[in-house]
From TrEMBL:
<feature type="transmembrane region" description="Helical">
    <location>
        <begin position="283"/>
        <end position="304"/>
    </location>
</feature>
<dbReference type="GO" id="GO:0016020">
    <property type="term" value="C:membrane"/>
</dbReference>
<feature type="transmembrane region" description="Helical">
    <location>
        <begin position="316"/>
        <end position="338"/>
    </location>
</feature>
<feature type="transmembrane region" description="Helical">
    <location>
        <begin position="368"/>
        <end position="389"/>
    </location>
</feature>
<feature type="transmembrane region" description="Helical">
    <location>
        <begin position="173"/>
        <end position="191"/>
    </location>
</feature>
<keyword id="KW-0812">Transmembrane</keyword>
<feature type="transmembrane region" description="Helical">
    <location>
        <begin position="88"/>
        <end position="109"/>
    </location>
</feature>
<feature type="domain" description="Acyltransferase 3">
    <location>
        <begin position="4"/>
        <end position="291"/>
    </location>
</feature>
<feature type="transmembrane region" description="Helical">
    <location>
        <begin position="409"/>
        <end position="430"/>
    </location>
</feature>
<dbReference type="InterPro" id="IPR002656">
    <property type="entry name" value="Acyl_transf_3_dom"/>
</dbReference>
<feature type="transmembrane region" description="Helical">
    <location>
        <begin position="230"/>
        <end position="250"/>
    </location>
</feature>
<dbReference type="Pfam" id="PF01757">
    <property type="entry name" value="Acyl_transf_3"/>
</dbReference>
<dbReference type="GO" id="GO:0016747">
    <property type="term" value="F:acyltransferase activity, transferring groups other than amino-acyl groups"/>
</dbReference>
<keyword id="KW-0472">Membrane</keyword>
<feature type="transmembrane region" description="Helical">
    <location>
        <begin position="146"/>
        <end position="166"/>
    </location>
</feature>
<feature type="transmembrane region" description="Helical">
    <location>
        <begin position="48"/>
        <end position="67"/>
    </location>
</feature>
<dbReference type="InterPro" id="IPR050879">
    <property type="entry name" value="Acyltransferase_3"/>
</dbReference>
Length: 456
């Protein structure tokens, strides 16, 4: 069973991270040209790293949902781990390999050049690369730095595999114990903003986002679904408010701050959307989408971001999220009115939004490739802009920081199109064939009888 709303949320999570890094690279491009213009991408996208928090919550939910048949023991646990490892590592190796080849070509194989020193923070090249490719905690980020999140994911999968060795009825208790251990370790000071050691990884507060998602998965698989439409709207507004307002100190934000600010609304959003999927009530996504777009646009127009003064952010957040809520209410009222007086028109509108949902689901399918490829694509694009921007005739379009917004719009639109295209091609010709191949191999290695019926 494919959960359309959840898959669409995966696409949203990836796009939040893409826009965050597009902003960062746009700032670098402006600085490289010796200019001081503000980037076009701003507003709530300055907190776009919250896409990672949404990913972690979805991951916890999916792990519980895909194992809902209740089969436990050595073979189901090994089958689960095989599926997750073959899902993560081959795609990771491809993109990490691309950036490694670039670094070797640019800085040589000795590993002693300034480039390698900067990337690996002075660590020897071979151990650094081995740990990067194996997704093992170390002080610097992996060679493709977004891989730090996959280190957490691999940890989640290993612990959850251990849970699958035990009776399914123990799962709520096991998750509660895991949550208590992580929270206690973090509160005792064993956590770090970045998980550079196995201990820091084991007790990092972001693990609680995975267990939150798992709790949502338990509720949904047991049929505990309540007011999915209303909760989806509330969660959307809650997450939008956090994206607009959050501006806490970086050490706190990288640990407990993001769990509180983003993990909780993401968990509620996943619960609401999963309920909509289970009950086939996707029409509630229409007011959620309209309200989100209105809030995003208004907050972008204010010119504020997470670096603005706290009082300014608070006022802008209240205003823009309130208008977003009003937009949601108008859409619901308009839908009810059309349902009463022009049902044919309402069906056509729903058909249009159904096509949008299908597109969002497709982006969700590409989300893993999108997450891993976007930095490579956007970095290359910034270099191309740097070359083309040297021409005076092309400067309005390609010299980042040039007066006007043509250069900013060109970079943002081109970057989005190229990253989506690259991820679609990667998914179609590499990730999807590998998924099919390893799926067949998994069936042969862990062939089992007919599973028991899943809970309603």
């Amino acid at each position: 069973m494919k959960l359309q709303s959840i898959q669409a949320l995966r696409g949203v999570a990836a796009l939040l991270v893409v826009m965050l890094h597009a902003r960062a690279l746009e700032i670098k491009g402006i600085a490289a040209n010796g200019l001081t213009e503000q980037p076009l991408i701003g507003g709530l996208f300055t907190n776009g790293f919250a896409g990672v928090d949404l990913f972690f919550v979805i991951s916890g939910f999916i792990m519980v949902f895909v194992t809902r048949d209740g089969l436990t023991g050595l073979k189901p646990a090994a089958s689960f781990l095989f599926a997750r490892v073959t899902r993560i590592y081959p795609v990771w190796w491809a993109f990490a390999g691309c950036i490694t080849i670039y670094m070797l070509a640019a800085h040589g194989v000795s590993g002693q050049s300034d480039g390698w020193h900067k990337v690996a923070f002075g660590h020897p090249m071979v151990p650094y690369l081995v740990k990067s490719f194996l997704l093992v905690p170390q002080e610097p980020f992996p060679v493709l730095n977004v891989g730090w999140t996959l280190i957490h994911e691999v940890y989640f999968y290993l612990v959850f595999t251990l849970f699958l060795l035990m009776p399914r009825r123990w799962l709520p208790l096991l998750l509660a114990i895991w949550t208590a251990i992580v929270a206690s370790g973090a509160l005792l000071g064993y956590s770090q903003p970045t998980a550079t050691t196995f201990l820091a990884l084991a007790v990092h507060p972001m693990t609680l986002e995975f267990t939150l998602g798992a709790a949502v998965g338990l509720a949904v698989t047991k049929g505990l679904i309540w007011r999915s439409g209303l909760l989806t709207l509330v969660a959307t507004l809650w997450l939008l408010a956090a994206l607009c307002y959050e501006g806490a100190g970086i050490d706190f934000l990288l640990q407990w701050g993001r769990v509180i600010s983003f993990g909780l609304p993401c968990a509620l959003l996943v619960y609401g959307c999963a309920g909509l999927d289970m009950t086939k009530r996707h029409a509630w996504l229409i007011p959620a989408l309209i309200g989100a777009l209105v809030t995003l646009a208004l907050y972008q127009l204010t010119g504020f971001d997470r670096n603005s003064p706290e009082a300014v952010r608070r006022g802008a957040t209240i205003l823009t999220v309130s208008v977003g809520a009003i937009a949601m209410a108008i859409v619901i009222w308009f839908g009810w009115l059309l349902g009463q007086r022009a049902p044919d028109q309402l069906r056509r509108i729903r058909s249009f939004f159904k096509s949008l949902l299908d597109g969002a689901v497709q982006v969700g399918d590409w989300s893993f490739a999108l997450y891993l490829s976007h930095l490579i694509v956007l970095s290359a694009l910034r270099n191309v802009f740097g070359l083309l921007g040297q021409s005076e005739s092309l400067a309005p379009f390609f010299r980042l920081g040039h007066p006007g917004v043509l250069d900013n719009i060109t970079f943002a639109v081109t970057g989005l199109i190229l990253t989506l295209t690259a991820s679609a091609l990667s998914y179609r010709f590499y990730e999807q064939p590998l998924t099919i191949l390893f799926g067949r191999l998994r069936e042969r290695l862990f062939r089992r009888g007919q599973p028991r019926p899943a809970p309603a």
